[in-house]
Amino acid sequence: MMPSLVRLGVILVPIVTLLSSAALFLRIQAPSPIGQNPFSTMATPQAPISEMTVASFNVRYDSSASALSSIRQLLRGGFAPYRSMSDRSYPPEQRYGELHWAKRVHKVVDTAIFHRWDIFSFQEVLPGQLHDLVGLLDARTEGLPPISISKGRDQSPGENASATGNRSHRYDWAGVPRNDGKAKGEAVPVFWRSDKFQRIGASQGGTGNEGVEHFWLSPTPEAPGSVGWDADQTRMCTHVALQPSSSTGQLIHVFSTHYDHLGERARAESSKLILRKAREAVEHTKETTGLDPLVLLMGDLNSPRHERGWKTLVEGHHGVDRDSQGNGFTFFDGALSVPTRFGTPYWPIPREEKTASWTESSDGGLLSEPYGPQTTFTDFQKSQKTAEDDRIDFIMYADNSAVKDHTEPSESRQRWQIITFGTIPSWSEGDAGFQISDHRPIQVTLSWQ
């Protein structure tokens, strides 16, 4: 009997060892629970920031798709409450070129994650969409606006905040709905990497009590929901002051906005208001810290280059004369300021004076021209407008001592400098191909050099 037990032991020992090794391997390789970031519990080193990627994307409000579905909704007695991307009851088929938000949201988030955006803004974000973006981006969940939930739908990522506990999140954000500043209407939120930046209040040279300010594009900017000049709708701007975890010591002011689509005067007046707000932010920061901050303006301005909305912001640059009554504080347009080998097809001169020559550079390591398509507004069907008229999304940066621009003389000390600009395609190859929005996202890379 003993020899039999010995033989049995010889057989079992390797099997037990193998099973134990397999269990250890599976435990190491097991995927994280759904909705949990596998890197969220890891300590993140606070390395100096020498380069950052900044982006802006009009994601298209959740319109519940086509005119046909809208008619059906009206015949049924009105529009249904918001249904998140986790709602499995929405029609999966493509309709009239625009897919339901529940389909598009995943590709919107993929774009931000794949391109490793550090600071970015979205436009046309309804409260329910904000819940989805926050959940899928692994952003802080506090401060989300309430939403109306349709019966029978699954839980949205933003609603599962309690499951995340007190762990750190990859992104922080700020934004409020524009109709009332609380729960109704579109938002223009700003997101940023929480391991790279922190909000800075006015007492430390930033803005507001907690580094955030919201104002409306109207003669009464402090009044939520106010409509300005000849605008068709209420419009607003979210302003965030950030401190990078780097040795630069310079604050960053970020303004995210969405101008009115009908009121041309409203767009021009909105630019004047933002210039004033940005100038005040710079003056306050400089008084408090002694340094000029980097100021970024991004969003859907609905203003082509031939309009005063754009010209007011860039006076003194890109072929636009400075207004004799101006205060000298203006912005560079990122698409027209990026250094390239073959110049830019965006033509920083009036349309009636176009020529066929670009300023060329023999320097290596530069883009040949701004990356990607020239237009940023695509609609969901072919546009009849020119490329110039359909470039209405912008990333700009203020002309002050925090930046140096290759088109302007500058001293040799270190500053932020734009090194790439691109318009990213908004086409997804999934499900036979579809557009994830009626706008393309735009992106710049800034380097401390």
Describe what this molecule looks like in 3D.
The chain is an alpha+beta fold and 449 residues long. It has a single domain (52-448), classed as Deoxyribonuclease I, Chain A. The chain is built from seven helices and 15 strands. The chain has helices spanning 2-29, 67-75, 101-114, 127-137, 264-289, 308-313, 334-337, and strands spanning 51-58, 119-123, 171-174, 190-193, 197-199, 212-216, 236-244, 252-258, 294-300, 331-333, 393-398, 416-423, 427-428, 434-435, 442-448. The strands form three sheets. Strands 5, 6, 7, 8, 9, 10 and 11 form a seven-stranded mixed β-sheet that branches. It has a six-stranded mixed β-sheet with strand order 3-4-2-1-15-12. It has a two-stranded antiparallel sheet with strand order 13-14. Strand 13 (427-428) and strand 14 (434-435) form a beta hairpin. Helix 3 crosses helix 4. The radius of gyration is 25 Å and the shape is globular. It starts with a helix and ends with a strand. The relative contact order is 0.12. Mean pLDDT is 78; it is low at 13-47, 65-95, 151-165 and 349-359.
